[in-house]
Amino acid sequence: MALKEYIEKAKEYFNLGEEEEMSTPSRPQPQVVQSQVKSQSTLQAVQKPTSQESDFNYERKASRQTENLNHNNKRASSQQRQTSTASSIIPTIAIKEPAAYDNIMESARIVRNGESVLVNFKNMGDQQARRSIDFLTGVVFTLDGDIQNVGGQIFLLTPNGMTVDAEKEMSILSGRNFEGMDNFQ
């Protein structure tokens, strides 16, 4: 008997008793006024999210914001690492003295790999040197780098992101070769 009372209390608790009464085969006549009221109430129910749905949406927004913050923090830390590693890297300058136009490709590859190249055309004829300078100018232009005439037949090729500020040194070296560099300090 206790089991029967327990089941009855459970039905009352979950309102199962009312559903049994509503499941009778009697059909109410539809009225136009009632359908309008029902549609308005269903619209209101659809438009207003329940507290559980709003909590879920709030949690989703919060998790998205947290993910965005984490992503931005990771991006900022990677940029800081890049700048710290960039400042710790000592730039190198390759020195090349090509004797023929065929040797210019090596200088172009070095600039493409992100290093600077100092090219001395003293071992090359004027026509080949001009042709080589034109080619290297095109290479540097494509890479958004820079080419500078350091003096006479010597050119400095720098890739994108590397700047050379050597006006003072250039004024000292104007008209001289690099063999006397040890005297200037």
Automatic annotation (TrEMBL):
UniProt entry tagged with the keyword Cytoplasm: yes
Presence of the UniProt keyword Ubl conjugation in the record: no
Pfam family, one: SepF
Region feature (Disordered): 17-86
Chain intervals with Low complexity compositional bias: 23-41, 75-86
Keyword entries, A-Z: Cell cycle, Cell division, Cytoplasm, Septation
GO BP: division septum assembly; FtsZ-dependent cytokinesis
InterPro entries assigned: Cell_div_SepF, Cell_div_SepF/SepF-rel, SepF-like_sf
Entry's localization field: Cytoplasm
Segments traversing the membrane: none
Biased composition (Polar residues): 42-55
Chief location category: cytoplasm
Gene Ontology cellular component list: cytoplasm
Oligomer and partners: Homodimer. Interacts with FtsZ.
Entry similarity comment: Belongs to the SepF family.
Function: Cell division protein that is part of the divisome complex and is recruited early to the Z-ring. Probably stimulates Z-ring formation, perhaps through the cross-linking of FtsZ protofilaments. Its function overlaps with FtsA.
PANTHER family according to UniProt: CELL DIVISION PROTEIN SEPF
Record's protein name: Cell division protein SepF
Name of the encoding gene: sepF
